[in-house]
Amino acid sequence: MYVAQPIEWTDRGVVMLDQRLLPGEEVSYTYTDYREVAKAIREMVIRGAPAIGVAAAMGAALGVLHSSAKSVEALRPEFIEICDALAKTRPTAVDLFWALERMKRRFAELTSRASDLGKIKQGMVEEAQQVHFEKKSTDEAIGRFGAEFMPREGHVMTQCNAGALATAGIGSALGVIRVAFEQGKKLHVLVPETRPYLQGARLTAWELHKGGIPLTLITDNMVGHFLKTAKVGAVVTGADRIAANGDTANKIGTYQIAVLARENNVPFYIAAPVSTFDLSIPDGDHIPIEERSAAEVTHLQGIRIAPDVHAAHPAFDVTPARYIAAIFTERGVARAPYTESLRALATTTHSIAAPSPASSSVR
């Protein structure tokens, strides 16, 4: 099955597929400077919380690798600047900050034990590559856990793009669908377009089509109609940040899908890695919501589609935990009460084989 590769570490630099140009063109760029990586994250060349985390890790490693510092003492303040530049790119996706904190810990370990800059640089590169490898393994585990909850046949719905393009693996929400499909489940995916950036239309539809998975593209204002009439068996989406109580931030439009799913007795699931948890905040009211350019609402591919009026563009919304039937992670499946199950998963140190839906809750 075709799986897109949004980012790779190479001897030439960090290679990213420009997701802004999909599905019309498949163009990749090679970045050799961490500032270029930061700009690529900020300008949505790469997007999706886990993939942003991989990009941030690679950007940090790239900055260290190409530093002209002649000593560890000179490299330390430069590394702080590198991480600060990357941290300022996207405020909502917690994977970005998780990855940078991990790279900071590795930098501290390396510089406390060695003064050889070559070994330090190599260690940072290896850590970034390890982050990427782990994200791929994480997706596969999430997919195995979540696939057990998908119907044997019929419609499922997703939102935005939580596929390979968003995670640098097989996808979180789309990973669940991929694994279920490969297990022989006869699924047909309903894909809302995801205005205003059209991640569903441009990216999710492209990924599913490339992978041979049946889909129907719908506009965002068709969601209620299809949840009511299409006998949808499940909704599964990704997440950018999950608060301690289970409140979940995801692409704008997710909240209304969750409400409509509840109204129509359709289970609503989240598929996300443990690195998406932010147990430092009690609930969704504390999740920062990125406000993107209003031009993305008033214009489509550079063409004005609205008069010159005020437009709002919150890039994410928060779905309250009460609408979420379960959260699929690489370490197991969390269910309410999420204050207990998320903390239990966060402190689990190893993955386990996916159990049946009846026995997989972590409490």
What does this structure look like?
By secondary structure, the protein is of the alpha/beta class. It has 2 domains: 7-139, translation initiation factor eif-2b, domain 1 (Four Helix Bundle (Hemerythrin (Met), subunit A), Up-down Bundle); 143-362, Translation initiation factor eif-2b, domain 2 (Rossmann fold), CATH 3.40.50.10470. It is built from 12 helices and 17 strands. It has an 8-stranded mixed beta sheet with strand order 6-5-4-7-10-15-16-17, with helices on both faces. Helix 2 (49-65) packs antiparallel against helix 5 and helix 5 packs across helix 7. The longest helix is centred in the middle third of the chain and has 31 residues, at 117-147. It starts with 6 loop residues before the first strand and ends with a strand. 50% of the residues are buried. The model is unreliable at 351-363 (pLDDT under 50).
- Cα shape: globular
Radius of gyration: 20 Å
Number of helical segments?
Answer: 12
Structural class: alpha/beta
Amino-to-carboxy terminus distance: 35 Å
As a percent range, the share of strand residues is 15-25%
CATH class of the largest domain, anyone?
Alpha Beta
